[in-house]
Amino acid sequence: MIVKKLDDVLGTEHEVKGGTWTSRRLILRDAGMGFSMHDTLIHAGTETLIWYKNHLEAVYCIEGKGEIEVLPDGPTYPIEAGTLYALNGNEKHLLRAEEEMRMICTFNPPLTGLEVHDEDGVYPALTE
Ligand code: 9YT
User: Which of 33, 97, 100, 103 lies at a C-alpha separation of 20 to 30 Å from 62?
Assistant: First the structure.
C-alpha cells in the first residue's frame, strides 16, 4: 500500500514544471498501478497545446476556471470545479485557464515521472 501527501512531492524531481503548468506527480509507473495520477496546476491566463498521441488522459478539475477547445474545429467546453474530461480519442486540444486551475490528471499508460510536452504537446511513448 502506498500512502503519500502532496507535501512529499513538492520540491522533488516529481514536481515537474512545464511552461504553463506545474505537475505534482503522485503515482507513477514504478508504483505498478497501470496508471499515473498527478495534481496539476494550469497557470492563470495561459493557453497550452496538448496532444497525447501515446496516452489516454482523464482530467478532473477541483479548483479554478477555464476551457478546452478540441482541434481542429471544436467544440469548446467550459471547465470549472467539478468538471471531468476524458481524452478517450487522443484528441488534440488547447487548454486555457482563465483562473488557475487545479486538475487531478490520470494517465494510461502511466508516466514514468519526468515527461514534459514536446513542441506538439506530446509526451513520448515509453521505450523499454
Ligand atoms: C491537463 C494537462 O494535461 N495538463 C498538462 C500537464 C499534465 N496533465 C501532467 O503532466 O500532469
Answer: 33
